[in-house]
Write a structure and sequence with these properties.
The protein is mainly α. The protein is built from 11 helices and 3 strands, in the order E-E-H-E-H-H-H-H-H-H-H-H-H-H. A 3-stranded mixed β-sheet has the order 1-2-3.
Length: 253
């Protein structure tokens, strides 16, 4: 907004792909945005039949993509470690209700996009978000996923068939959600959004019936803290360390 002569009249709108189907629109306030400007954007999103969520401070990834950055780091670290094969991980996640596992989804979106997004978060936030070596190696080979015919999977004959019987038995199904909760509390602590905003954004950008913060209220905060500490140590990722908000919640329960 500062490149214009009217920064108070500038705000952001972030739609989700495919925009005709996805309900969420993140309405982003800059440091200079006037209240009236943001209210106009919010009302415009409603007139489009969308569900607007206010991003009160401009931040990398806004809300939904930032919250999803944490499980993306987790899945990448798991595959990089070699402890779980991509198909075994995808089969597990599909067996617990995901329409597509994380590795197949990365292929679908594009390895190049995944690498660039991860590098952006690494540059803007912390090196722990950086793309794993196996992703950069695929990119260097021109293996971009679905659009090039090869990524984690061979797409030359259409969508790969994931063998659901190969699902790993070495993965806690709530770990991705634990990392989402932790990441979301960083945004809440920074004044980017409220807890309710997080769930509203995640429900309307993913199609999941329940947001991560609602799930968080149903689980042991001690278990959440313990699992996050284990992840941080196991994968040497400080971004998985429980936030102060998560630790405080554990002490209150």
């Amino acid at each position: 907004g500062r490149s214009t002569q009217r920064p108070a009249q500038v705000f952001g709108m972030h739609f989700f792909n495919p925009a005709v189907l996805m309900k969420l629109v993140e309405v982003i306030r800059s440091d200079d945005s006037a209240d009236e400007t943001v209210e106009t954007g919010y009302a415009f999103a409603q007139k489009l039949g969308k569900v607007p969520v206010l991003v009160r401070r401009d931040t990398p990834g806004f809300i939904a993509n930032r919250v999803n950055a944490a499980p993306a780091v987790l899945f990448g670290a798991i595959v990089e470690s070699g402890e779980i094969e991509p198909e075994a991980l995808d089969a597990f996640m599909m067996n617990v209700g995901m329409p597509m596992g994380p590795c197949e989804l990365t292929d679908f979106v594009g390895i190049d996009i995944a690498v660039n997004v991860a590098q952006y978060f690494a540059d803007q936030l912390h090196e722990d978000y950086a793309p794993e070596p196996h992703l950069k190696a695929m990119l260097a080979k021109g293996h971009l996923g679905k659009k090039s015919g090869q990524g984690y999977y061979d797409w030359s004959n259409g969508r790969p068939e994931i063998d659901r019987s190969k699902a790993t038995k070495k993965f806690h199904p709530l770990l991705p959600i634990f990392t989402q909760i932790n990441e979301a509390t960083k945004l809440v602590e920074q004044g980017v959004c409220s807890i309710a905003d997080v769930d509203l954004a995640m429900i309307n950008s993913t199609g999941n019936p329940v947001g991560p913060m609602s799930i968080g209220r149903q689980i042991s905060h001690w278990d959440l803290t313990d699992q996050l500490e284990r992840l941080a140590k196991k994968y040497q990722k400080t971004i998985f360390e429980p936030t102060q908000a998560v630790r405080d919640a554990a002490h209150k329960h």
